[in-house]
Amino acid sequence: MAWNYYDAGIGNVASYQASGHPWLSGSNALTSNQEIQITFPFVTKSITVAQSGSGVLRVHFAPTGSMVGVPNCYWQLDSDEDALTMNVKCGSLYLSAGSGTPGFQVMAELTRIETARMFALTGSGITE
Questions:
Q1: Distance (Å, rounded) from C-alpha 62 to C-alpha 96?
Q2: For the whole prediction, is pTM greater than 0.70?
């Protein structure tokens, strides 16, 4: 009798139904017009980003250079302790300072899916 072995994968529903393991990061302040990429060690199940400090923190899934001429392909957090929770699968996230020097905290719930298995996020609302 042959046994089938199933492992974590992008299309594997159980990978998203199981509780994820936590991942945390943060910074005191981004400088004006600074952009950073947060790369996760595994594909996310959900992400929470909280703004700390002053100014506007932008959350997006593509670098701003790829969004030239495309307005509003980001979510803005514009006050201290303003937060955004997203139930999304991705391998990375971009944060940028729209104005001022906002800080941030990122908490992600991770699956056991390797980020190399994640497809590139592009298209309407991401890069166009």
A1: 11
A2: yes
Q: Is 66 left (phi over 0), alpha (psi -120 to 50) or beta?
A: alpha
Q: How far apart are CA 8 and CA 3, in angstroms?
A: 17
pLDDT in tens, 25-64: 999 889 887 899 999 999 999 999 999 988 899 999 988 7
DSSP class of residue 32 equals T
Question: What would you measure as the largest C-alpha separation in the chain, in angstroms?
Answer: 64
Q: Are 29 and 103 spatial neighbours (Cβ–Cβ below 8 Å)? A: yes
Number of other residues whose CB lies within 10 A of the CB of residue 77: 23
Whole-angstrom Cα Rg for the chain: 16
CA-wise closest residue to 24 among 50, 56, 3: 50
